[in-house]
C-alpha cells in the first residue's frame, strides 16, 4: 500500500508536468485555430477594406466615374461576403451618401463649366471666325493658283474635323510665309470639356441621364437667350457687333462639339431648333440696330462681319440663307447711307465751284484734267495754250465721285455669293439712284439758290451737257469691273441722260425766271410823268439800262445750245412787252396824256430796235420783233388817231390793228378822256378841242358797244 501510494504519488508528480504540457498544447491549438479563423475572416474583409480605401482615394483625386464603378463592385461582389460585420453596415449606409456627393460635385463642376464657356464664348467664337476667314482667304488663293477649292469642313465619324489633311498641310505652308500668323487652335484647345463628359457619365451610371440632359439643355437655352441679347450701344461701333457675333458663334461651336462627341446629350433636332430660334432673334436685332447706322463704313464693316459669321456657322452645318437675304436688306440701307454721304460731297463740290471754264496753261495741265474726266473736243485741241475748257471745275470732280460711289457700292457686293450679272445689276441700280435722286436733287437745289445768278446758271447748263455725255463712259467703267457685256438682255442702263436733261430744263426755267425778275426790277424803277404835254425826245433812262443789261446777258449765252438762248431771248422780250402793256393799263393809273403816249412810244421803239439787232443769233426774219406787236399796234392807233379805220376794219383778218382789242383800247382811251377834261379847262371855247372831245366820246361809246357785244356773245 505504502509502495502503491508512493508509486501513485510519484506518478502524480510526474503527470503534473505532462498535464501542464498537455494543457499548453490544448491552449496553443485553440489559439492556432482562432488565428486560422481570423486569417480566413481577414482574407474576406481585406479586399473590402482595400476597395473602400480605393474608393476614398478616388474621391480625393476626383475620379468620380471610377469611384462609382468601385462602389458597384463593393455592393455586388465584396460587401455581401462580409455583410455580418458592423463596419460593412456602416459602409453600406455611406455608399448612397457618396453617390449623392459625387452627383453634387459633378453638377457643381458642370455649373462652373457652363459659367466658364458663357464668359469665354466670345473668345471661342472669335477664334472660330478668324479660322474661317483665314481658310476662306487661303481657299481663294488656292483657287486662283490651282482652280481647286480646298476649303471644306468635313465630319469624320463622330468628331469635328476643322480641315482635311491636305488643307492642314497647305495651310501650314501658307502660314509659314506669314510671320504674324497665330497657331491654329481648335475648340478643344480653348475649352476643357471634361466636366461635361464626366457629369454625363456619372449621371448615366446612376441612371439619371435624362435628368442631366434636361438640365443641360435648359441651362444652355437660358445662356442662348443671354448671348442673343445685344447691348443697347452695339450699333455705335464695329467692336460691339464683333463681340455680339463672336458670342453667338462661340455658343454654337460648343454645341456642335457636344453634338459630335457625346451620344444623345444634344441632338441635331435640338441644335437645329435652337439655331432657328437664334437666327430669328439675330435677324430682328440686326434689322433694328443696323437701321441706326448712318456711317456707310460702319455698315460695310457690319456686312463683312455678317459674311464671316455666316460662313463660319455654315461650315458647322447650320443653314444661313436667311442671313444672306438679310444682307440684301442691309445693302439697300448701305446704299441709302452712301447716297446721304455723296449728297454732302456733291453739295461741297457745288459750293466750292467758281462756275467758270477751267483754264489750262499748258499740255501737262490739260492732260491732268482729261485724265480725270473723258473730255474730247477736236476744235479745242487745235487751239494754242493757254485755253479754257468749257466746263467748270465741278464736272471732273463729280465724275470722280460717281466712280468712287461705284467702287464703294461694289465693296458691299463682294462675298455675297452672287453672279457677275447680279453684281452688275446691283451696281447699275445703285448708280442710277445716285444720278436720278441724289445728284439730281443737289442740282435742283443748287439751281434754286438765290446766289446763283444767270452766269452760274449758264455754266450749270454747260456742265450738265458734259456730264450727260460722260454717262457712256460710266457704263463702260461698270462693264470693266463686272465683265458683263452691255449687250446682255437684262443689263440695266444708266439714267444719267434723263437726270441731266431734267437739271438742264430746271436751269433753263430758272434763267427765264431770273431774267423776268431782273426785267421787273428795272420796270419798278420806271418813273413816267403820265400828264406830260410833250415827250423828252429820247427813250427813258431805265429802259436803256434794261436793254444794255439784256444785251450783255445774251452775249454770255453764246455757249448755250441755240434753242435755249433763243427761248430765253424770246421769253425776255415777251415779258418786257407784257410788263409795259400792264403799265399802260394799270387800274391805278387814271390819266394818260398824249405826251406820255409819245414818250412811251419812244421806249417801245428802242425795244423794237433791240429785237431787230438780233441779240441772239438764229431768229428768222422779224420773229423777235413780233413780241412787241401788240404794243406797236396799240401805240400806232393812238399816235395816228386812226379810229375810223380801226372801227371799220374791226373783226377782219386784214385789219391794220388786228392785235388791239376793244377792251384794251377802251381802257386807254378813257384814261386819255379824263386827262382831256381836266387839262383843257377852256376846251369848250375852242372848236378843235370840242370836236376832239366829241370824237373821243363817240369812239368810247362805240368801243363800249363792241365790248358789250363781245360779252353777250361770250
UniProtKB/TrEMBL annotation:
Q: Does the keyword Coiled coil apply?
A: no
Q: Might you name a Gene Ontology BP term for this protein?
A: Golgi to plasma membrane transport
* Residue stretches making up the Exocyst complex component EXOC6/Sec15 N-terminal domain: 3-129
One family name in Pfam for this protein: Sec15_C
Keyword entries, A-Z = Exocytosis, Transport
InterPro entries assigned to the protein according to its UniProt record, in alphabetical order: EXOC6/Sec15, EXOC6/Sec15_C, EXOC6/Sec15_C_dom1, EXOC6_Sec15_N, EXOC6PINT-1/Sec15/Tip20_C_dom2
Q: Where is the Exocyst complex subunit EXOC6/Sec15 C-terminal domain?
A: 323-671
What does the entry list under GO cellular component?
Answer: exocyst; plasma membrane
Annotated family: Belongs to the SEC15 family.
The protein in question is named EXOC6 protein
Gene name of the record? Exoc6
Amino acid at each position: 500500500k505504502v509502495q502503491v501510494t508512493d508509486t501513485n504519488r510519484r506518478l502524480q508528480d510526474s503527470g503534473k508536468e505532462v498535464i501542464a504540457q498537455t494543457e499548453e498544447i490544448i491552449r496553443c491549438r485553440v489559439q492556432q485555430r482562432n488565428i486560422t479563423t481570423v486569417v480566413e475572416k481577414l482574407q474576406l474583409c481585406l479586399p473590402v477594406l482595400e476597395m473602400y480605401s480605393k474608393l476614398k482615394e478616388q474621391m480625393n483625386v476626383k475620379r468620380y466615374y471610377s469611384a462609382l464603378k468601385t462602389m458597384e463592385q463593393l455592393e455586388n461582389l465584396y460587401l455581401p461576403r462580409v455583410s455580418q460585420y458592423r463596419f460593412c453596415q456602416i459602409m453600406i449606409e455611406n455608399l448612397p451618401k457618396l453617390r449623392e456627393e459625387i452627383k453634387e460635385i459633378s453638377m457643381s463642376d458642370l455649373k462652373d463649366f457652363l459659367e466658364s464657356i458663357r464668359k469665354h464664348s466670345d473668345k471661342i467664337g472669335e477664334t472660330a471666325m478668324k479660322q474661317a476667314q483665314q481658310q476662306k482667304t487661303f481657299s481663294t488663293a488656292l483657287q486662283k493658283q490651282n482652280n481647286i477649292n480646298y476649303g471644306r469642313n468635313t465630319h469624320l465619324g463622330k468628331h469635328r474635323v476643322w480641315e482635311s489633311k491636305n488643307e492642314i498641310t497647305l495651310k501650314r505652308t501658307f502660314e509659314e510665309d506669314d510671320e504674324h500668323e497665330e497657331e491654329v487652335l481648335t475648340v478643344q484647345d480653348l475649352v476643357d470639356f471634361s466636366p461635361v463628359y464626366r457629369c454625363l457619365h456619372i449621371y448615366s451610371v446612376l441612371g439619371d441621364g435624362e435628368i442631366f440632359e434636361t438640365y443641360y439643355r435648359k441651362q444652355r437655352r437660358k445662356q442662348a437667350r443671354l448671348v442673343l441679347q445685344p447691348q443697347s450701344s452695339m450699333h455705335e461701333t464695329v467692336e460691339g457687333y464683333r463681340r455680339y457675333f463672336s458670342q453667338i458663334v462661340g455658343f454654337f461651336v460648343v454645341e456642335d462639339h457636344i453634338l459630335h462627341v457625346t451620344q444623345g446629350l444634344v441632338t441635331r433636332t435640338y441644335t437645329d431648333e435652337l439655331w432657328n430660334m437664334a437666327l430669328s432673334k439675330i435677324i430682328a436685332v440686326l434689322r433694328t440696330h443696323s437701321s441706326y447706322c448712318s456711317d456707310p463704313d460702319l455698315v460695310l464693316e457690319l456686312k463683312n462681319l455678317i459674311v464671316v459669321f455666316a460662313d463660319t456657322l455654315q461650315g458647322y452645318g447650320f443653314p444661313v440663307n436667311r442671313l444672306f437675304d438679310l444682307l440684301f436688306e442691309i445693302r439697300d440701307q448701305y446704299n441709302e447711307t452712301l447716297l446721304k454721304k455723296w449728297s454732302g460731297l456733291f453739295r461741297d463740290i457745288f459750293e466750292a465751284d467758281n462756275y467758270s471754264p477751267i483754264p489750262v496753261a499748258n499740255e501737262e495741265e490739260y492732260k491732268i484734267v482729261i485724265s480725270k474726266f473723258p473730255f474730247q473736243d477736236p476744235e479745242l485741241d487745235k487751239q494754242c495754250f493757254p485755253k479754257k475748257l468749257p466746263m467748270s471745275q465741278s464736272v471732273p470732280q463729280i465724275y470722280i465721285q460717281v466712280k468712287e460711289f461705284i467702287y464703294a457700292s461694289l465693296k458691299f457686293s463682294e462675298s455675297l455669293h452672287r453672279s457677275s450679272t447680279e453684281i452688275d445689276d446691283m451696281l447699275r441700280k445703285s448708280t442710277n439712284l445716285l444720278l436720278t435722286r441724289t445728284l439730281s436733287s443737289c442740282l435742283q437745289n443748287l439751281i434754286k439758290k438765290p446766289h446763283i445768278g444767270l452766269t452760274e446758271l449758264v455754266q450749270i447748263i454747260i456742265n450738265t451737257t458734259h456730264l450727260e455725255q460722260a454717262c457712256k463712259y460710266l457704263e463702260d467703267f461698270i462693264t470693266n469691273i463686272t465683265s458683263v457685256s452691255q449687250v446682255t438682255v437684262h443689263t440695266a442702263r444708266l439714267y444719267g441722260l434723263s437726270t441731266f436733261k431734267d437739271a438742264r430744263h430746271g436751269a433753263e426755267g430758272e434763267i427765264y425766271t431770273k431774267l423776268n425778275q431782273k426785267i421787273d426790277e428795272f420796270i419798278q424803277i420806271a418813273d413816267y410823268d403820265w400828264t406830260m404835254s410833250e415827250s423828252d425826245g429820247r427813250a427813258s433812262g431805265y429802259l436803256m439800262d434794261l436793254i444794255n443789261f439784256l444785251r450783255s446777258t445774251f452775249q454770255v449765252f453764246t455757249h448755250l445750245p441755240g434753242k435755249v438762248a433763243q427761248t430765253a431771248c424770246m421769253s425776255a422780250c415777251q415779258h418786257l412787252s407784257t410788263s409795259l402793256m400792264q403799265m399802260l393799263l394799270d387800274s391805278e393809273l387814271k390819266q394818260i396824256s398824249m405826251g406820255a403816249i409819245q414818250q412811251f412810244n419812244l421806249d417801245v421803239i428802242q425795244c423794237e430796235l433791240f429785237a431787230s439787232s438780233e441779240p441772239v443769233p438764229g431768229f428768222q426774219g422779224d420773229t423777235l420783233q413780233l413780241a412787241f406787236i401788240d404794243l406797236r399796234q396799240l401805240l400806232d392807233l393812238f399816235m395816228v388817231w386812226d379810229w375810223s379805220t380801226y372801227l371799220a376794219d374791226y373783226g377782219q383778218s386784214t385789219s391794220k390793228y388786228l392785235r388791239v382789242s376793244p377792251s384794251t383800247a377802251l381802257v386807254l382811251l378813257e384814261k386819255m378822256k379824263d386827262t382831256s377834261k381836266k387839262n383843257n379847262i377852256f376846251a369848250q371855247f375852242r372848236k378843235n378841242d370840242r370836236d376832239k372831245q366829241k370824237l373821243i366820246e363817240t369812239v368810247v361809246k362805240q368801243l363800249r358797244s363792241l365790248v358789250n357785244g363781245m360779252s353777250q356773245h361770250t
